[in-house]
Write a structure and sequence with these properties.
The complex is a heterodimer of chains A (488) and B (102). Chain A has 488 residues and is of the alpha/beta class. Helices cover 39% and strands 13% of the residues of chain A. Chain A has 16 helices and 11 strands. Chain B has a domain of 48 residues: Orthogonal Bundle (Histone, subunit A). Chain B is flat and about 55 Å long. The chains are: A alpha/beta (488), B mainly alpha (102).
Amino acid sequence: MPSEIKRAETFVEKPRTLAALRADITAGTVTATDLAAGYYDRIAAVNPRLNVYLSLSKDRAMEQAARVDALAAKGDPLPPLAGIPVGIKDVLVMRGAPATAGSKILEGYRPPYDATAVARLEAAGAVLLGKLNCDEFAMGSSNENSAYGPVRNPVDTERVPGGSSGGSAAAVAANMAVATLGTDTGGSIRQPASFCGVVGVLPTYGRVSRYGLIAFASSLDRIGPFAGNVRDAATLLGVIAGHDPKDATSSPAPVTDYAAESDKPVERLRIGVPAEYFAEGLDSEVRAAIEEGIDSLKAAGCTVKPVSLPHTKYAIPTYYLVATAEASANLARFDGVRYGYRSPQSDTLSAMYRHSRDEGFGAEVKRRILLGTYALSAGYYDAYYLKAQQVRRLLAEEFLRAFAEVDAIVTPTSPVPAFKLGEKTGDPLSMYLADIYTVTASLAGICGVTVPCGATAAGLPVGMQVLAAHLHEGTAFRVARAVEAAQS
Amino acid sequence: MTAKVTVEDVGRVAELAHLELLPEETPRMVGDLNAILDYVAELNELDTTGVAPLAQVSELIAGHASELRQDMPLPSLDRTDVMPQAPESDQVFFKVPKVIER
């Protein structure tokens, strides 16, 4: 827990680019060992205020850094992320490292294997610094549902970093890692990236293997990178994407060179702007910043045209039925038998299940398990779960029709900038509505990138969401690069 | 679809989900669930007659595997790595409290 903070502080510091770090490590002017040690110093200085890291994997990180330095000293070719310090959201497992998913129910659990995305980062030379705070089981939009205390926004410590991947976004914003991994089920990468002023990527469903991800809603869960700039985020995605036999839903489609695609000009790309994302509830300063971003795309030679996504208003109810139904099934595995917490009140098997789950889960997780169980229970299945799945198809088809006319769709990532800690905790429904612009792409399985696009008068970052069709990540990166270029 | 959730409903669902709610937790959950279910009732405005449910988006994505992998036994995690994570085990089996009173 961070110590009591009386007034807002700011800890924003931009990480250096992958290209700059790589040049230094290759030339030997910086060693991976020194770089990692420097990041651990930064974490030691800043983490007590921000509560970003839940655990550090120093031994593993320093061994990897030494391996990279040995390669560089020999003059051997370096892998794409050689020596790059990264952080991992604590819903992804790392062999031997604590994996809490932000929950008390997994306290003490040390998984015996690496998630595929984590293993691929390390195989590409990345140095794994540690595990990042998040909402419990990735359920939340403010990081206030973590059993280990909230993360604070590095831009303004009285505000939330967004959620559920709040630690992943804040780590990059405060330069406590060069890049991080997060997960996005209904907006959990995009919304915190926009709140903290960094780049976040929602890959197409199945583009990144979910093996080793502690599941929340399996038909929606995605793993994606956060970085300080679009090109670096594209490079990270290229490393973690690709087919994995350990995830039956992972896509066999070839992985393209996303960083190279992001370098292409955007001239003549067709950009759709859906009126439904600029309606009631959108903060006026966010609107102004996004409209300016759209103007910069026009100036870069894009054709901007309206598109219609009339089912948008049904996305939140659809999402919360589908996601909670799947969560109620996925979270049945936490029963005090194989790993994690077992209640001392375990006289019988049934009491062990009930008490372990009651004492181990937080209020929001229980709320979602109850809602999901209710929606799946006899007599309500057709009215809730089946209905939501039908509307999910309407929402997905609407996007497919739109992408026949445009190459990308741009929207605000969130209707409001980062809100204050405690502002929405009393009303679960108002917290759910924070996801209004992000859950649509989650349900449709399409990809997207959120890129910083201006700020409010108070200096709070605004993010633009760039959505593209299934497996068209390259297009989303291209458009995001153009928005980013217009910022500087 | 505008059914009002009662204290009894929450108790029944909690039992299905193996959750032991504290007495003070129940009224809050009843209120929250009713608010959320009132909100999701908006879906009733839509006529979805004849719309096939979409449980999973892979069918919409070109090139996604449409067939299941072959059912072949492959090596799994080593038991000696897995068992130490259990709250109670004899390193071969997971141990749980008694299931049947005698």
